[in-house]
């Protein structure tokens, strides 16, 4: 299949999240089928599989039950030229909580395994971390299109024009140059390029999609690395996300990340998502494999 430009990345995201029902097929699992928007890379973007797996699980619970956590392992690279089949096992439906196991398959082999938990919202104790203060407004920061749109290379054009999210760096971008601060910290504003449907589940899945974009960057920043590091091999190993409060993915979200550890060719990133007015809406964590020629 030949790579071609995406005319409307936001609409492509919405269509990607609209999974087919597998023609009514069901064994011990509910079956759904998702497609991939073509990319200059041969691998499926990890956030896509996370978002589609979340969507598949959400399709099997009562509307009143809201996803609050997902824990996933990336098992194999996904092939952008193949559809992805999602099998959802209904592990438990309790009085307040439901649990779902999701496997994503290509060519009969699992590429992702995840467990998601859902809850009927309830009253209880409330607190949250405070949002970082003194952050510049997203409108004052350059977009990826402004930073990369002039570069005639498939990867640069894909980031500049074909991602469904507008990502604006507060910390210094590390597309080509190392971060001069040398801190294991990253901060960006994110939102979809165009409005999304009002369905809250679409917004929850869209935030899962975006959560994978920059989560390992704090590791690279601390060690003076960039996204064009010669010989670098980087891949997500696992991903966790906790949705705390409802928010829209088509309004600006502050996404701040840090890295508490790197060891044994693995790095850990931890992130928090805040609305523009400081409400903590989600927490994320991911460990990735990071290999460099100087350690081989």
TrEMBL record:
KW Hydrolase (keyword) present: yes
Domain Acyl-CoA thioesterase 2 C-terminal intervals: 178-289
InterPro entries documented for this protein: Acyl-CoA_hotdog, Acyl_CoA_thio, HotDog_dom_sf, TesB_ACOT8-like_N, TesB_C
Pfam family, one: 4HBT_3
KW Acyltransferase (keyword) present: no
Residues covered by the Acyl-CoA thioesterase-like N-terminal HotDog domain: 41-119
Catalytic activities: a fatty acyl-CoA + H2O = a fatty acid + CoA + H(+)
Keywords, sorted A to Z: Hydrolase, Lipid metabolism
Transmembrane domains' residue ranges: none
GO molecular function: fatty acyl-CoA hydrolase activity
Biological process annotations from GO: acyl-CoA metabolic process; fatty acid catabolic process
Record text on subunit structure and interactions: Homotetramer.
Family to which this protein belongs: Belongs to the C/M/P thioester hydrolase family.
Annotated protein name in UniProt: Acyl-CoA thioesterase 2
Organism: Kocuria flava
């Amino acid at each position: 299949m030949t790579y071609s430009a995406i005319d409307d990345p936001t609409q492509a995201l919405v269509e990607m999240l609209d999974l087919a029902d597998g023609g009514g097929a069901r064994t011990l699992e509910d079956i759904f089928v998702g497609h991939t928007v073509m990319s200059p890379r041969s691998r499926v973007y990890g956030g896509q599989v996370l978002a589609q797996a979340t969507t598949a699980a959400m399709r099997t619970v009562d509307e009143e039950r809201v996803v609050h956590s997902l824990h996933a392992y990336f098992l194999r690279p996904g092939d952008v030229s193949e559809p992805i089949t999602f099998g959802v096992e209904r592990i438990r439906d309790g009085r307040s909580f439901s649990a779902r196991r999701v496997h994503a398959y290509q060519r009969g082999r699992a590429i992702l395994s995840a467990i998601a938990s859902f809850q009927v919202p309830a009253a209880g104790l409330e607190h949250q971390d405070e949002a970082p203060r003194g952050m510049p407004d997203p409108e004052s920061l350059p977009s990826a299109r402004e930073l990369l749109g002039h570069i005639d290379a498939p990867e640069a054009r894909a980031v500049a024009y074909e991602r469904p999210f507008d990502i604006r760096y507060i910390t210094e971008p590390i597309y080509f140059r190392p971060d001069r601060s040398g801190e294991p910290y990253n901060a960006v504003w994110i939102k979809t390029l165009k409005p999304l449907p009002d369905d809250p589940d679409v917004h929850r899945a869209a935030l899962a999609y975006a959560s994978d974009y920059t989560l390992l960057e704090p590791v690279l920043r601390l060690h003076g690395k960039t996204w064009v590091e010669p010989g670098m091999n980087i891949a997500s190993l696992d991903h966790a996300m906790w949705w705390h409060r409802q928010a829209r993915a088509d309004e600006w979200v502050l996404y701040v990340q840090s890295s508490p550890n790197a060891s044994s060719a693995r790095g850990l990133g931890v992130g928090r998502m805040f609305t523009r007015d400081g409400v903590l809406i989600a927490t994320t964590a991911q460990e990735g494999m990071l290999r460099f020629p100087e350690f081989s």
